[in-house]
Amino acid sequence: MSAALLRRGLELLEPPGRGKALPGLQRSRSGPRAAGAARRRKRAPEPGRSKTTVKGRVVKSAIEEYHKKKPVNHLRENLQYMLKGRLVEDKAIAEQVLAQNRGRKSKDQPPEKTEKKKPESTVFTEEDFRKFEREYFGIP
Questions:
Q1: pLDDT per residue over 64-107, tens digit each?
Q2: For this UniProt entry, which residues form the secretion signal (predicted)?
Q3: Sign, CA torsion 76/77/80/85
Q4: Rounded to a whole number, what is the distance in angstroms from the first to the last CA of the chain?
Q5: Do 105 and 98 touch, CB atoms closer than 8 A?
Q6: Predicted TM-score (pTM) of this structure
Q7: Got the DSSP string for 113-133?
């Protein structure tokens, strides 16, 4: 901590009735170090000055900061972008691209599709068979 900060802190802690120290008790600014301190004080403030001071600081509104950082919904723009470039490719070309991007390991291969067997059913009913028997074999 610098001496100036300590002095300010002590001034804040002083009882209200007591003023500054007597002029005789204050340190004098004579000597080789006094000139250097004066030079340091006169130097122009740099753009990267100390942030510890309140002077010149702009108070930011918490509501404005919240609105700045609030997430923006880009769904509508993304949907328009995706829908404007409608190119329908052949299924064969799409399958080729997918096959090239797949790995060679068995775990990367899609499962083989097995065709489901439909239960065999006939077009003819039992009455049709009986009628056929009567006509063909002559059974009454």
A1: 888 888 888 999 999 998 888 777 778 888 888 888 888 888 88
A2: none
A3: negative
A4: 123
A5: no
A6: 0.21
A7: PPPPPPPP--S--HHHHHHHH
